[in-house]
Every structure is written in structure tokens, then in C-alpha cells.
Design brief:
The complex is a heterodimer of chains A (569) and B (137).
Chain A: H1 2-18, H2 23-39, H3 69-73, E1 96-101, H4 106-118, E2 123-127, H5 130-133, H6 157-163, E3 174-177, H7 182-196, E4 205-207, H8 212-218, H9 225-242, E5 246-247, E6 249-252, H10 254-258, H11 263-284, H12 288-291, E7 295-301, H13 305-326, H14 332-335, E8 339-343, H15 355-369, E9 374-376, H16 389-405, H17 419-442, H18 445-450, H19 453-470, H20 497-512, H21 515-530, H22 536-544, H23 549-560
Helix pairs in contact in A: 4-6, 7-22, 9-11, 11-13, 11-17, 13-15, 13-17, 15-16, 21-22, 21-23
Chain B: E1 7-11, H1 20-31, E2 35-38, H2 45-55, E3 59-64, H3 69-82, E4 89-94, H4 101-106, E5 111-113, H5 119-134
Parallel strand pairs in B: 1-2, 1-3, 3-4, 4-5
Classes of the chains: A alpha/beta (569), B alpha/beta (137).
Chain lengths: 569, 137
């Protein structure tokens, strides 16, 4: 833990020692600051971000000695994109208000989708239940108690059709938070689009499909890393040929942060995962500019306002530099990092849940000032259950108030040029570079994961944070200070009728489809993998014959094997 | 007299993969001088009961954030009772609606720790409970 702490502050300290205050600043420090501190000492405790990163009292010109306006800041819509990836950003179009939603059955979630769209959200985002995420049908033994609890239960194309009933996929963009079974779920989505008459050339959305962060943080892995990366590469390859407006991956830091990482770790591990996928696609034989424009990213929007803004700006600048320098990409669309942000679920409290509306608003503001393309705001009941309709509505209204009442969308990158924000952007970028170099030295991200490196960094950071809370070095209002006695709030209840209904539906589905055809197509899927062919065509055939998700994933489990981690505590 | 160390099994029942809390608690309990075994992810109630028996633990800490607690926890309690492990203290941490807590306690869960609980509170609770159990209270 000591080594990690030293490394964490070493980049800060190196910036500190490189800092050359001007003569007038030094005079001010001597003649004004020193006496002021003697007369009125600063508050006790350290002034660090939620990640534990030290923040100076005052940032001045001296913090930007090595900073070059042309090279490091630039203009929005041009490399290095520090100020944003579009020339006019929100003046042209606001960020997409894309609320993550899903619970119970496909009908329940379809209703919530239509409600949110009617209330002004501008994109869909699907939350699947744990059985679906882990590639089990709703009636599998291991699904008991879990069906519809964390998201919507999807066991077949039939469920997917119900999910998007009355929602034209040609006109509405959809993000799907699914990882190990992503290719199969995407096949279902593409099949629904086809049935609706929505052209694959036109449909737009995002598949999360970022398996590396599963081993690192979210832990919804099924198969081992190498074949899993092959599946991801299959989808990127397929998308590059058939779905030009669809993002086949959402390379994510959100979950890494939720698992307890620092902001710098979040950025570093996310971009290094991106690097791993780019390498995999290049090995497959693709040209970088063929697929890189459709790589998208997903970051957390946590509590420390300025650390988050710096993180997003550093992300754009660093990725642009990586794509140009490391991979020689020549298309500006390959250089521009596009991202979705979600406010930090882990920062929200079970105690005094209405305080969470305030936290979410601040975090959303940071994401907007950081130039996000798309945003989800959490609901106040986050620490208790899936959101009620009322809580989900307040969360959406939060974005609308920011967009229409706060004025922050009137200008691009309002904080550009701030000594503090530019200095912090530099420091976050450098911190991320250091981690990326370490992972490179370990042999890449898969190698690093096998050695438990990112997992241990995250576990250490999570423990440091908890220790700080236990010692009241960090205060969480309502939790370790300012608590009151409270009455419980109303929360969303999901009961076992969803599971019962799903079981009935699956019995009917299995009885009505051609069992022979399903077996034939699953066999074809098996063959495709063995022959190192892209799995998307055979997945499409399988889902259209109403092979269930569980059957497809069992086939994949058979051929690819399953993964078990050696836990790092 | 050398007091026997408190042995704790930290377990993740069901499909839920969110292990931040489980790992933080495991480390905190170790730092407090307890012996901690972490089962890893995706344990069935059968696997947890079996591990608890084999490891001869005083305490089982279940981490569950998926909403499947009303199915998994009673099943575990049944298995523990069937195996004569009534003296094992079973705790839950995670996302549990207030309304579900009474039934869980009825089923034999000693305490449910909600988000925001300090690690010290958990350490203290375990020490008290195990001391009482060892005195046959």
C-alpha cells in the first residue's frame, strides 16, 4: 500500500518540484501568504480529491510553465481535442440524455422506456438482469431469485421483440449494457431491427461489450480472456462492415471507478483496455482507420468536480496522442474520443437519500463541463433499489435543468485556460501515462490482469478510501457526519412473478420452435468458432431460430471454456 | 490464555459480481486480527455452507447487492441448520430494502449492514457476538 501511495503522489510531487514561481509570486508567498497563514491557519486535514490526489492552495501561471496553448489546449473539434471533439459542441446539439433503465419483464421495461422517451430523454439505455448478463435463461437453476431484479430479463429474440415494441429502431438510438453475451444480444437487436424494416446502415447505438473491464472490475465474465477478446473483435469487424453508425464497444472506466479506483486509474485502465482492443483488431488484419472511429468510451462522473473535468479533458488529449503516435491513425475520426458518462452510483448514500439529488446534479455538471456526448444521471434511491418512476424522473429533470437553465451549454469548454483546470488536466494525463507504461511493461492488459495488477491497485484504493471514511478524514454527509434518524423511503419492488412468467414463456417458445433447426444452427456456431470465422453471422442465424440466450452461451461455454478468477482481496 | 482467533467466511452468493465491499470488509477484519476466508464470486448456498463447515468458521458474512437475498439467504440458513451450524453468526451486507430485514432476521440472520456502515461497527459486532457465542450465551 505504501508503494502505491508514493506513486500516486509522486506525479503530483514531480509537478510541484518542476514548478517555478515568478519573482512576484514568491514575494507574495513571503510577504502576504506566510503572515496570513500564521494569523489564520488553514482548516485541519488534507486538501485532496476524492481519489486522494493533493490539490494546491492556488494555481497560477507557474503551474503551466511547460504548457503550450497550441499543442496542449488547441480549439474544440481539432486535435488534441482537449476542449471537445466538436467545433461547436452543445451549441449545435446537446449531449444525449440517455437514462439507463430496465427491470422485470420486457413489457415492464418497454413501458419505462416509453415513459422516459415521453418525458424528454433522447436515447435509450438497456439494463439487463444478472441471469441475462451471465448468459443464463430465466428458468436456469442459477437464475433463481435473480430474474428481473437488476435489469430486464431477456432470454430470447422473442423477449427482445417485446422490449422494443412500438419503438422504431431506425429513429431511436440504443445503448446496451451487456458484456460476455454481448455478441448474441447484439444479434437479437439486429434481428429486431430487420423485422422492423430498419436498415442496419441507419441504426445507431452502442454495445458495451468491453470484456477486459469485467476481469478488472465488474466481474461479469463467462469465458477466458483470449477467446472473449476474439468475440469483441468479431463485433468490431462486423460493425465496420455492416453497421456504420453503431458503436460496437463502449470501453469503460465507470465500473473500474465504482470498484474503488482513483480517477487516474480509471482513465489509465480504460485507455489501456482500448489499446488492447486496437491491437487485437490490427492483428485480425483490419486497418486502424476502418474501425477506430467507432470505438466509444464510458466514464464515471464522481464527486470531485474539478478532478472529473480534468479527467475528461486529459482523456481526449491522451487518446488522440495514442491514436496518432502509437497507432499511426490518420483519420481525425480515429483520434476523437467520444464518451458517455454516468454519475457515480457508489457515491450515493442510503442515508438521507434526497441528498443524492444534489450529488447527482453536481456530478452531471462536471460531465457537461467536461464535454460528454451522452449522460445518465442516477436516481436518489440508488443505494436502496432500482429507481421508482418518480426518482427516475427527477434524475432526467436534472439533466434538463442543466441544459436549459444553467447556461453552461452556451459556450464550449468554459473552464479552458483556468490555471487549475489546465494544470490538473496535465497531471491526470501524466498519471495515466505512467500507469499505461507500467501495463505495457507487464506485457499488456491481459498479462497485467493475469498478475492481478489492476485488481490490486483498485482494491488498495478502495481500502484507502474506506479507511479515510472510518477515520473521518473524508466526510460523507449523512453517513459519517450529520446523520439523523430517518423513515424509510418507498422503493421499487420486483417479485417472483417475473420469473414465473418467463418460465412459462420459455416452455412455450421451446415447444413452438423447430428444435432441429436450433440444433443445426448451434452446431454451425460451434463450427464457425472452430474454423476461426466471425461468429456474428451464425449468432444471427441462431437467434432468428429462437435459440435461447442460455443455449447459445452454453454452446460458447463448451467451445471456449469458462473463467474463474483467483481473487485478490 | 491465548484466545482462539475469530474465523470469518466472506461469501458472495448468487450471480452478483460486485465485490468491492466484500474485499474491503475482508481486509478490515484481517487487520482487526481475525482469520478471513474469501470464497470468491458466484457461490451457491450449498457451496457456502460447505465452505463454512470445512473452514469451521465462527461467522459468515454474505455480500449481496443483486436483490436475490430473499431466495438465497433463507436457503443458506436452512442448510446451516441442517448441518448443525446454528451457532455460526450470519451477517449480510449490501443492498437490502428495509422492509426485507425483519424476515431475514426471522430466518436467523444476526444483522444486516447497509451501505455507509463503518468497518469498526462490523468488527465490534462480530467480536461481541462471537464472545457471547463462546460463553454459550
Amino acid at each position: 500500500m505504501g508503494e502505491t501511495k508514493d506513486r500516486k503522489t509522486s506525479s503530483a510531487l514531480s509537478f510541484e518540484s518542476a514548478r517555478k514561481a515568478s519573482a512576484s509570486e514568491r514575494a507574495w508567498e513571503e510577504n502576504t501568504l506566510r503572515p496570513a497563514l500564521l494569523k489564520s491557519p488553514e482548516r485541519a486535514g488534507n486538501f485532496t480529491t476524492v481519489s486522494g490526489y493533493p490539490i494546491r492552495r492556488l494555481y497560477t501561471q507557474a503551474d503551466l510553465a511547460d504548457w503550450d496553448v497550441g499543442r496542449d489546449l488547441g480549439v474544440p473539434g481539432s486535435p488534441p481535442y482537449t476542449r471537445g471533439i466538436h467545433t461547436t459542441m452543445y451549441r449545435r446539439r446537446l449531449w444525449t440524455m440517455r437514462q439507463f433503465a430496465g427491470y422485470g419483464s420486457a413489457e415492464d421495461t418497454n413501458r419505462r422506456f416509453r415513459y422516459l422517451l415521453s418525458q424528454g430523454q433522447t436515447g435509450l439505455s438497456v439494463a439487463f438482469d444478472l441471469p441475462t448478463l451471465m448468459g443464463y435463461d430465466s428458468d436456469h437453476m442459477l437464475s433463481e431469485g435473480e430474474v428481473g431484479k437488476c435489469g430486464v430479463a431477456i432470454s430470447s429474440l422473442a423477449d427482445m421483440e417485446t422490449l422494443f415494441e412500438g419503438i422504431p429502431l431506425a429513429d431511436v438510438t440504443t445503448s446496451m449494457t451487456i458484456n460476455s453475451p454481448a455478441a448474441a444480444i447484439w444479434a437479437m437487436y439486429l434481428a429486431v431491427a430487420e423485422k422492423q424494416g430498419a436498415s442496419w446502415e441507419r441504426i445507431s447505438g452502442t454495445l458495451q461489450n468491453d470484456i477486459l473491464k469485467e476481469y478488472i472490475a465488474q466481474k461479469e465474465y463467462i469465458f477466458p480472456p483470449a477467446p472473449s477478446i476474439d468475440l469483441v473483435t468479431d463485433t468490431i469487424e462486423f460493425a465496420s462492415k455492416h453497421t456504420p453508425k453503431f458503436n460496437p464497444v463502449s470501453i469503460s472506466g465507470y465500473h473500474i471507478r465504482e470498484a474503488g479506483s482513483t480517477a487516474i486509474q480509471e482513465l489509465a485502465f480504460t485507455l489501456r483496455d482500448g489499446i488492447e482492443y486496437v491491437e487485437s483488431c490490427l492483428v485480425r488484419g483490419m486497418q486502424v482507420d476502418q474501425f477506430a472511429p467507432r470505438l466509444s468510451f464510458f466514464f464515471n462522473a464522481h464527486n470531485d468536480f474539478f478532478e472529473e473535468i480534468a479527467k475528461y479533458r486529459a482523456a481526449r488529449r491522451l487518446w488522440c496522442r495514442v491514436m496518432r503516435e502509437r497507432f499511426g491513425a490518420t483519420s481525425p475520426r480515429s483520434w476523437a474520443l467520444r464518451f458517455h458518462a454516468q454519475t457515480a452510483g457508489c457515491s450515493l448514500t442510503a442515508q438521507q437519500p434526497y441528498n443524492n439529488v444534489v450529488r447527482t446534479a453536481m456530478q452531471a455538471l462536471a460531465a457537461v463541463l467536461g464535454g460528454t456526448q451522452s449522460l445518465h444521471t442516477n436516481s436518489l434511491d440508488e443505494a436502496w433499489a432500482l429507481p421508482t418512476e418518480a426518482a427516475a424522473t427527477i434524475a432526467l429533470r436534472t439533466q434538463q435543468i442543466l441544459a436549459y437553465e444553467s447556461g453552461v451549454a452556451n459556450t464550449v469548454d468554459p473552464l479552458g485556460g483556468s490555471y487549475f483546470v489546465e494544470a490538473l488536466t496535465n497531471e491526470v494525463e501524466q498519471g495515466a501515462r505512467d500507469y499505461i507504461a507500467r501495463i505495457d511493461a507487464l506485457g499488456g492488459m491481459v498479462a497485467a490482469i493475469e498478475r492481478g495488477f489492476p485488481q490490486r491497485e483498485i482494491a488498495d484504493a478502495a481500502y484507502r478510501y474506506q479507511t479515510a471514511l472510518d477515520r473521518k478524514e473524508k466526510i460523507v454527509v449523512g453517513v459519517n457526519d450529520y446523520s439523523t434518524s430517518e423513515k424509510p423511503i418507498e422503493t421499487l419492488q420486483i417479485n417472483e412473478t417475473v420469473a414465473d412468467r418467463q418460465a412459462k414463456r420459455l416452455r412455450k417458445l421451446r415447444a413452438e420452435r423447430s428444435q432441429e433447426e436450433v440444433q443445426r444452427r448451434l452446431h454451425a456456431l460451434r463450427k464457425a468458432i472452430q474454423l476461426h470465422e466471425n461468429t456474428m453471422p451464425s449468432l444471427l442465424e441462431a437467434v432468428k431460430a429462437y435459440a435461447t440466450l442460455g443455449e447459445i452461451c452454453d454452446t460458447l461455454r463448451e467451445v471456449l471454456g469458462t473463467y474463474e478468477e483467483s481473487a485478490v482481496t | 490464555m491465548h484466545e482462539k482467533k475469530i474465523r470469518v467466511l466472506i461469501a458472495k452468493p448468487g450471480l452478483d459480481g460486485h465485490d468491492r465491499g466484500a474485499k474491503v470488509i475482508a481486509r478490515a477484519l484481517r487487520d482487526a486480527g481475525m482469520e478471513v476466508i474469501y470464497t470468491g464470486l458466484r457461490q451457491t448456498p450449498e457451496m457456502i455452507a460447505s465452505a463454512a463447515l470445512q473452514e469451521d468458521v465462527d461467522v459468515i458474512g454474505l455480500s449481496i447487492l443483486s436483490g436475490a437475498h430473499n431466495t438465497l439467504c433463507p436457503r443458506l440458513m436452512q442448510l446451516l441448520n441442517a448441518n448443525g451450524m446454528q451457532d455460526v453468526t450470519v451477517l449480510i451486507g449490501g443492498i437490502i430494502p428495509e422492509g426485507d430485514i425483519p424476515a431475514l432476521k426471522q430466518a436467523g440472520i444476526a444483522e444486516v449492514f447497509l451501505p455507509g456502515t463503518s468497518t469498526q461497527a462490523i468488527v465490534d459486532f462480530i467480536r461481541q457476538r462471537v464472545a457471547a457465542a463462546r460463553q454459550g450465551v
